[in-house]
Amino acid sequence: MVKKRCGWVGESNSLMLEYHDREWGVPVHDDVKHFEFLVLEGAQAGLSWSIVLNKREGYRRAFSEFNPNKVARYTEKRVQKLLLDQGIIRNRQKIEAAVRNAPAFLAIQEEFGSFDAYSWRFVGGKPKVNRWKVMKQIPATSSESDAFSKDLKNRGFTFVGSTVIYAHMQAVGMVNDHLVDCFRYREVATVNQPIAEPEELGNAGRIQWVSGRLGEAPAYAGTDFIIARDGQIAAVYLFFDKPPLIA
Asked: One of 24, 41, 74, 118 is an active-site residue; which one?
């Protein structure tokens, strides 16, 4: 049986297929991934997403695995080197924006504990699930992306217009804009959702989550414990809990 996909996916482009089928619209709660998509969405401005995907690994290498702490320390000499890097889109404004946004990103982490905690406030902490039937119904911006974009600009970010930020929100699952007849529409809606703010516990962290189908009570619940050593994830432990009762 042929899988029905959103109309923007090129069936002949394996990278686009994989991105649509595995990533687009899946809720993201990892700050490095948030920073990655901010860099990539900014790079896309005025271009097709397929161009950016084809250069994604080039960006990963050029921007230190999307580590905002490292990117924030990039100098003009490093920017000049990036302008010669054929693995990325060699647009000075976009490159400088990515570098300039890194310290602003770190400032948000300092203020809110994580960029994730900050960004998800704009959709009330859970994905906004739309019910689009055709591609032309999907908007380029929303009131949420307008507010998100405005706040980022006030914090010193550039290349974060409402259109760029709405694309970011789609990418990180803050909105589910898969068409209702796309096979990923309901799959994305069953992805684990946090039910509380992530907790820091010394060199570890804890995330509580639930999972269930759209419009139904959670079928599963659990707690992930993440152990870190030297700034890297060393181990992850998953425990299943009793699903919460929904009135």
From this structure: 41
- Specify whether 48 is located in the same domain as 137: yes
Give yes or no: residues 99 and 74 share one domain. Answer: yes
Which domain covers residue 215, as residue numbers? 195-240
Same domain, 82 and 38: yes
132 has catalytic annotation: no
Q: What is the pTM of this model?
A: 0.78
- Three-state secondary structure of 21-51: HHCCCCCCCCHHHHHHHHHHHHHHCCCCHHH
Q: Which tokens go with 226?
A: 């993440």
Whether 166 is catalytic is no
Is 41 tagged catalytic? yes
| Chain segment 89-135, per-residue pLDDT in tens | 999 999 999 999 999 999 999 999 999 999 999 999 889 999 999 99
